[in-house]
């Protein structure tokens, strides 16, 4: 039993393997939050709190005449608003009488076996974990607005999920203006916030900021989870690092706008709230109506950031990703986007297939431009019919010919969008989100379809169903290339326009659900102008997401590094592209590009007919190498061995969970003349085991280095886990253009 209720103390305690979480029903019926941190057995943690008479922090009526209990100073599980707690809050609303107050008291709770699900929204699921669910009901005794606080407990995985269902049990209409998924009060400590900001082609950059006596907000108001911030945030002890210290993770299972706020209050207690973006949000609740928030995945690590990342990696892989390709090896693909952009014909695609198959590539993905009048990015979106001027032989025949060459076939779509220059828009202009009387805001000359409308989804489903049922398509890249503006639906009444952005996401999920249910064997890769929707919502339907439109391996390092804090490499779409790189003009070797792309789903995005014979040979070797280490890379424990951009090289490692092998990856980002000796300390090995070192790739790191610069060679073919983890492996002199190597360690005794 991981959820324990004690009537005498009023405590409800959740235990995971290494953490405990506790709330308590106080004698007055407040739901106090008492603890979340390292596991503590059988204790009423409310002793942590002393009640003082705090000036200007008022007292709720039921404690009268005491002046020592205040909602403004109490750690609470899900605070209300407008009744004496002035801190950031997870809920706000307008009651039917116009008042704004919401004041919760405990009503009851229920503990159930199994994991809850949420109507209309994706959420994590029990993968044989023996998960449990706790539902705590709190209500406003005057308005009868009720919140069901829902918790999912995955004891072995150190994960607690949270969601909230707000129910209007009163008589009048309530307008919700904020409905967050969680609130967490941490009454002690000095904390930093680590968040993952970015921009197009430079997503999920790591930034660490101290929390202080002001409200910090991380979020997206773009209708997508966004390039600019990710719905995953870590709050870490100021001294916490990869292997030491306390940290909390919060990840929203949602693909639209979101908000996380953090505030250190007057008594140095930290409050965190997270949920749906509320800036353009309102939700109409008639009597009896309910609103469900998306889920937040929380984890606590008492031993640093690496452990926190491992908790998320396992959970995303096993309890968020679904379907045939959740654990199965995904095909190594070649995508034609950077090879041809819009300029291709069926002959060109067949030529790419001819060149790719002998290299060991397993699937050809036809990207943007195969439909309607899509000869540039100004037209055609919405017209999901094959352009037979480009694909003269027809799609079915093209796929058959590609299959005959031994390759699977995948295709790109961007269902949620429409160009004004398209048959679809000419027929249904009102299907696009636009505000009456205003000219639309365009991005890439495209508008956003109103995904909340069933007829829009039915049209899209019909087109996708037709494509997938009549053609042997085994992969779909689902793109979405803009932030949403003009959030106004022609089909919704004036007082429901605040619902449009959330209803859009509900519609998107409904469509994705229909497609994955009816075409379970098709692998979907999420994409949003690169990684603008890299989130656990999309991962519930597609086990991989195109990480970024930046394929420069050196810039990719910080993107994949930042992404790795919350998401496993099995989710990160990564390709080897051409050199010089199309985004930066940088030259890198195919070897370095391969090493970086292998720490992801691995594929190619270039014209193979332009490759040298030497590069083709190297690709063949890369594919053999990737397949050989596939399990280790995709399912092993991922270790960040360097802090990004702090040194002249970056290093990361995959280690088998049982310590039997490891794969070290190193890229020199700023080669040095006369370099200092650098020792890379490995992680996750067995201390007293002996490891055989396969250093055959090292020659690529020193290639071209004049012999007089090389060290006298020291033969190190075997080292103990102790030596590798405590003293490290000595890096040789890096020479050339961003040299890189992989090194394999195998336990031999
Ligand atoms: C953005 C994606 O991220 C690219 O990979 C490519 O598919 C283009 N869209 C096509 O328009």
Structure, explained:
With 749 residues, the protein is of the alpha+beta class. The chain folds into 3 domains: 3-319, Distorted Sandwich (Beta-galactosidase, Chain A, domain 5), CATH 2.70.98; 333-546, TIM Barrel (Alpha-Beta Barrel), CATH 3.20.20; 639-747, Immunoglobulin-like (Sandwich), CATH 2.60.40.1180. Helix content is 19%, strand content 29%. The chain has 14 helices and 39 strands. Strands 6, 7, 8, 9, 11, 12, 14, 15, 19 and 20 form a 10-stranded antiparallel β-sheet that branches. β32 (637-640) and β33 form a beta hairpin. α9 runs parallel beside α10 (590-598). The longest helix is centred in the last third of the chain and has 19 residues, at 500-518. The model has no long low-confidence stretch (mean pLDDT 97). The structure holds (2R,3S,4R,5S)-2-(hydroxymethyl)piperidine-3,4,5-triol (DGJ). (2R,3S,4R,5S)-2-(hydroxymethyl)piperidine-3,4,5-triol binds next to loops. Residues 337, 367-368, 412, 479, 481, 527, 529-530, 546, 549 line the site of (2R,3S,4R,5S)-2-(hydroxymethyl)piperidine-3,4,5-triol.
At the first level of CATH, what is the class of the largest domain?
Mainly Beta
Return the structural class: alpha+beta
Percent of residues in beta strands: 25-35%
Number of helices: 14
Just name the CATH architecture of the largest domain: Distorted Sandwich
Computed Rg? 27 Å
Reported for the largest beta sheet, the result is: 10 strands, antiparallel
The average pLDDT score comes to 97
The CATH topology of the largest domain is given as: Beta-galactosidase, Chain A, domain 5
Write down the oligomeric state. Answer: single chain
Bound molecules: (2R,3S,4R,5S)-2-(hydroxymethyl)piperidine-3,4,5-triol
């Amino acid at each position: 039993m991981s959820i324990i209720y004690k009537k005498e103390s009023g405590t409800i305690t959740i235990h995971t393997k290494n953490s405990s979480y506790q709330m308590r029903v106080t004698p007055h019926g407040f739901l106090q939050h008492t603890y979340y941190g390292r596991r503590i057995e059988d204790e009423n943690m409310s002793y942590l709190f002393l009640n003082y008479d705090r000036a200007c922090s008022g007292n709720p009526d039921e404690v009268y005449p005491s002046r020592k209990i205040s909602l403004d100073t109490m750690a609470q599980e899900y605070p209300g608003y407008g009744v004496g707690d002035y801190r950031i809050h997870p809920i706000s609303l307008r009651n039917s009488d116009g008042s704004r107050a919401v004041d919760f008291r405990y009503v009851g709770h229920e503990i159930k076996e199994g994991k809850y699900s949420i109507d209309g929204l994706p959420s994590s699921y029990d993968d044989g974990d023996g998960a449990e669910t706790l539902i705590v009901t709190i209500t406003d005794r005057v308005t009868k607005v009720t919140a069901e606080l829902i918790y999912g407990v995955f004891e072995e995985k150190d994960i607690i999920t949270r969601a909230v269902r707000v129910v209007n049990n009163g008589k009048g209409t309530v307008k919700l203006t904020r409905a967050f998924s969680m609130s967490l009060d941490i009454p002690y400590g000095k904390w930093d916030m680590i968040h993952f900001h970015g921009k197009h082609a430079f997503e999920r950059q790591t930034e660490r900021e101290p929390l202080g006596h002001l409200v910090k907000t991380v979020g997206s108001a773009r209708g997508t989870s966004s390039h600019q911030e990710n719905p995953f945030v870590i709050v870490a002890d100021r001294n916490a690092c990869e292997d030491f210290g306390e940290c909390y993770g919060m990840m929203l299972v949602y693909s639209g706008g979101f908000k996380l706020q953090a505030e250190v209050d007057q008594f140095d207690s930290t409050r965190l709230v997270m949920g749906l973006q509320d800036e353009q949000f309102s939700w109409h609740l008639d009597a009896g109506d309910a609103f469900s928030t998306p889920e937040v995945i929380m984890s606590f690590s008492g031993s640093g950031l690496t452990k926190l990342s491992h908790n998320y990696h396992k959970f995303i892989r096993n309890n968020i990703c679904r379907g045939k390709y959740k654990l199965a090896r995904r095909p190594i693909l070649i995508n034609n986007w950077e090879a041809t952009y819009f300029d291709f014909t069926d002959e060109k695609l067949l030529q790419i297939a001819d060149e790719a198959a002998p290299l060991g590539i397993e699937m050809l993905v036809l990207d943007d431009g195969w439909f309607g009048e899509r000869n540039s990015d100004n037209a055609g979106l919405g017209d999901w019919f094959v352009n037979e001027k480009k694909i003269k032989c027809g799609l079915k025949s093209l796929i058959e010919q590609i299959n005959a060459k031994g390759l699977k076939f995948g295709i790109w779509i961007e269902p949620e969008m429409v160009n004004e220059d398209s048959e679809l828009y000419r027929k249904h202009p009102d299907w696009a989100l636009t505000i009456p009387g205003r000219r639309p805001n365009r991005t890439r000359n495209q508008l956003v379809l109103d995904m909340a409308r069933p007829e829009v989804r039915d049209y899209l489903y019909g087109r996708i169903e037709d494509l997938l049922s009549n053609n042997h398509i085994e992969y779909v890249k689902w793109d979405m290339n803009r932030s949403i503006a003009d959030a106004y639906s022609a089909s919704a009444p004036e007082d429901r326009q605040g619902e449009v952005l959330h209803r859009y996401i509900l519609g998107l999920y409904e469509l994705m659900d229909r497609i994955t249910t009816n075409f379970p064997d098709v692998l979907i890769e999420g994409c949003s102008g690169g990684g603008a929707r890299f989130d656990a919502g999309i991962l519930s339907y597609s086990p991989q997401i195109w990480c970024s439109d930046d394929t420069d391996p050196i810039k990719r390092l910080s993107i994949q590094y930042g992404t790795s804090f919350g998401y496993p490499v099995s989710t990160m779409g990564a390709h080897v592209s051409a050199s010089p790189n199309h985004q930066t003009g940088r030259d890198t070797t195919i070897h370095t590009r391969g090493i970086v792309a292998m720490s992801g789903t691995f594929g190619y995005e270039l014209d193979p007919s332009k490759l040298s014979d030497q590069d083709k040979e190297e690709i063949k070797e890369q594919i053999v190498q990737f397949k050989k280490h596939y399990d280790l890379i995709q399912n092993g424990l991922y270790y960040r061995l360097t802090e990004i951009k702090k040194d002249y090289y970056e290093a990361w490692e995959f280690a088998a969970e049982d310590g039997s092998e490891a794969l070290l990856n190193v890229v020199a980002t700023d080669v040095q003349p006369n370099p200092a000796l650098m020792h890379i300390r490995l992680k996750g090995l067995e201390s007293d085991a002996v490891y055989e070192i396969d250093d055959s790739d090292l020659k690529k790191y020193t290639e071209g280095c004049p012999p007089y610069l090389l060290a006298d060679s020291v033969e190190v073919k075997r080292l103990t886990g102790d030596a590798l983890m405590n003293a490290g492996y000595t890096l040789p002199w890096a020479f050339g253009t961003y040299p890189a190597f992989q090194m394999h360690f195998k336990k031999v005794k």
